[in-house]
Amino acid sequence: MWKTVFLKEMTDSLRDRKTLLLTVLIPLLTMLGLVFFYESMIADPGDKTYTVAINEKLPSDMNDMIKEVKNLKLETFDDPQQAVKDGEANAYLEMPKDAGDMLQHQTSFAIKVHGYPTDDDSVIAVQMLQSLLEQYQNQVVEKRLAQDQIKSSVIHPFEVQSVDVQEGEDGDGENGVTTMLLSILLPMILVTSVISGALPAALDIVAGEKDRKSIEALFLTPASRLQLLIGKWLAVSMFGILSGIVAISMLLLSTLLFTEKLKQALNFGDQVWSIIGVMLAALIIFSFMVSMIELLLSVVSSSVKEAQSYMSMIITLGVIPMFFTMRAGATQLDTYYFAIPFLNIHALCKQLMFGIVDPMSIALTLGSSALTVMILFVIVRSLFMKEKWMLAK
User: Fold this and answer.
1) Where are the alpha helices (DSSP H) in the chain?
2) How many Cα neighbours within 13 Å face the side chain of 244?
3) Could you give the 3-state DSSP secondary structure of residue 54?
4) Among candidates 109, 99, 91, which has minimal Cα distance to 60?
5) What is the C-alpha separation between 354 and 343, in angstroms, rounded?
6) CA 329, 335, 336, 339: dihedral to nearest 10 degrees?
7) CA dihedral in degrees (127, 129, 133, 134; nearest 10)?
8) Are residues 43 and 261 in contact, defined by beta-carbon separation less than 8 angstroms?
9) How many whole angstroms separate alpha carbon 85 and alpha carbon 379?
10) Nearest to 373, CA basis, from 275, 279, 295, 280
């Protein structure tokens, strides 16, 4: 009998355009927007040119060094600082008029690089100039040391190199950054898509029945209240699962098809099917848990409007754990991360994105979520059996 209830609720919900909108269209558009946003954050400057304003002639060797950088273009302005303010230049390189003579006479002087810290292009231009000036300074020092027949190792006794322990000595550090971004984005998308996808059905399936005063007629059918509850719960869960699958699929497809940097983080090698299987299992059990919470709120609400006010806190409950796992390393997540509902899905997804398939973490995540589902089911079943909560007021 619960199968009949399940099919009825699925059919009724699919007729509602709002359900399809929240289950398919919104996750799809959200994925595309977020993927392009994150890609733009880590994209290389490429062929973009940044204008550097000057008002004095630079020393010839410094001028040649800057001109060799294809992304920087020197341009003379009467008022360089105003040019930066007006957006005509991205940065202003301020030097003393007699900088060349001061270098020859080994006189120290200050070089100022002006820019806007709130403008991304200006920040990039300033950083590029600072890096070039540091290289130029090292060249000047080496020349002076060579003139005095002093080895450069006297003032540079050692070189500090940073090595990514995950990538190895020849690895690309950018891959770690893209993996970190996706490890934050993926669980957030999974959680919000499941919650929003199941929400319309959960609102209508109990609170909506109360509003329409059709819940009494439903109780007169041959199906028992337990069968009604199971059928409704599975219907709500199915929409959460479908929404999650659509969102994650669109995230992965858009990343693979439309990005260059982000897709580097999706190279899982031989573990790809294990990761997909674990992700699917976590998505299903999480959908069961979320749908049961939404059903609980729908049961205790006397109307759809009241239920909507309660449902908003579920989104918050799903997003807050992101801030706890954001700064923690994938190998530094303690056991309790995987034992707390909502927090565990964020922690597990982070490990999976870094290619870590830990049986203990998986078992704790799925087990704690399953235990939560059982506890919630007992509570909702108890309320579902009482007219105080189920009959329209």
Assistant:
1) 2-14, 17-20, 26-42, 60-67, 80-85, 99-104, 120-147, 173-202, 209-212, 215-219, 225-258, 272-300, 304-319, 321-325, 343-353, 359-384, 387-390
2) 29
3) strand
4) 99
5) 17
6) 110
7) 20
8) yes
9) 62
10) 295
Q: How many residues does the chain have?
A: 393
Positive or negative, the Cα torsion across 321, 323, 328, 329? positive
Residue 46: which residues within 8 A CB-CB, separation 6 or more? none
pLDDT digits (tens, 9 = 90+) for 338-382: 999 999 999 999 999 888 999 999 999 999 999 999 999 999 999
Reading the block at residue 108, the tokens are 């120290």
Residues forming a β-bridge with 73: 51
Nearest to 51 by CA among 32, 34, 69, 75: 75
Q: How many other β-carbons are positioned within 10 Å of the β-carbon of residue 320? A: 12
Q: Tell me, yes or no, if the pTM score tops 0.90.
A: no
| Local confidence band at 168 (pLDDT 50, 70, 90 cut-offs) | very low
Residue 239 and residue 198 in contact, taking contact as beta carbons nearer than 8 Å: yes
3-state class (DSSP) for residue 198 = helix
Rounded alpha-carbon distances, angstroms, from residue 91 to 44, 108, 301: 19, 23, 58
The 10 Å Cβ neighbour count of residue 91 is 29
Distance (Å, rounded) from C-alpha 272 to C-alpha 107? 60
Question: What does the CA dihedral 140, 143, 148, 153 come to, rounded to 10 degrees?
Answer: 90
Residue 10 structure tokens = 């699925």
